[in-house]
Structure formats: C-alpha cells, structure tokens
Amino acid sequence: MESFSTLIRTASREQHEEIRGSTFMSDLLGHKLGVDAFARYTEQLWFVYGALESGAERLAGDPVAGPFVRPELFRTASLEQDLEYLRGPGWRSGVSALPATLEYARRISDCARTWPAGYVAHHYTRYLGDLSGGQIIRDTAERTWGFPKKGDGVRFYVFEEIPNPAAFKRDYWELLDAVPGDELERQRIVSECKRAYAMNNAVFQALGEEFPLSA
C-alpha cells in the first residue's frame, strides 16, 4: 500500500510543475526581471507566511497539526529582514497584498482555525517547497543582483537551524505518514494540497500581469 507521503507527492506533482513553469517564475529565474519584481514577490510571501505562522501558534498543541509546528522552519522574521533590505526601513507602510495573495492567506487562516489537517496541507506545500526549490531562487538572486551569499535580501531561503535538509525531509515524510484519519480524510488533505498549489500559482499569475516581460 502506498504511503500517505508518497500519495501527496505523486498527486501534487503536476501542480508543482505548473508553478515551476509559470511565466513570472520563468522570467525571474531567467534573469529577465528586475529586483523590484523579486521584492514584490517577497512581499507576497510575507503575507502568506504571516497566516501560516500565526496559525502555528494556535495549533502547537493540536494532535494533528502540532507535530508539524517546528520553530526552526519559521520564516516571518527572515522575510522582514529581507524586506527592510529590499524596501528600506519604512517598508511596512508600502507593502500590499495582491488579491490572489489575500485569498491564499485567508484559506490558510481558515484551515488553521477550523481544520488542522488542512493546515498541514498548506504547511507541506510551502515549507518543503521553499526548503527545496527555494534554493534555486536564492542562488539566482545572489548572482543576478549581487546580494550577499545567504545574507540580506535572501535570508528567507536560508534555513540556518536545519543543517541537514535531507534528514529533515525524511523526518517530515514520517510525520505525514503518521497523520491520523481515514482514507476519506487523507483524500481531503491531498485535495487541499492541490488547492494550495493552485492558489500559489494564482499569485504567480498576478505577479506576471504586474511585471510583464522586460528586456
């Protein structure tokens, strides 16, 4: 019988590829967009992770979501350091969430409040995605705009408290396999993973409209 972690990865693979192939991300990774586009994307992440991590405080003792609340993953403080570097000390007065970002953050908050297993789906798609593929974005940003290696501007992508990402991910798969629930509940979680990828892709589409290809 297929493990739950394998089921999630298999079921969400197509959506993950769509995100990797989005116009905005392709242009960003292809050195075709300016640093302002990267900063705007970082703003959107701040709103998304704000929803994830305020929900984490509420769920730390929950039997389903609690085991996934790992402070070494938290990204909000790093995002705020990056935004101060990218936007200046008054960055809070200038950031704004795209409508797609607001919808995404709202869904995360709703799951945190009413459905802990759904929160796990969003936790998985965000943190493991940024722990893995996010490193490509960090490397591109450092080379394209001359950011200090693993420093200001890209601190979000540096998981200093996770010295062995491969081992961490193995532990994470085990946590997913141990999530309680019957087959119907697990299918609901898989569906929520797909929804999370779709909402993330909607943010990329909105960013692509805001930053059409520049020379």
From TrEMBL:
It comes from the Bacteria. InterPro entries: Haem_Oase, Haem_Oase-like, Haem_Oase-like_multi-hlx. The keyword Iron applies. The keyword Metal-binding applies. Keywords: Heme, Iron, Metal-binding. Gene3D superfamilies: Heme oxygenase-like. CDD domains: HemeO. This is Biliverdin-producing heme oxygenase.
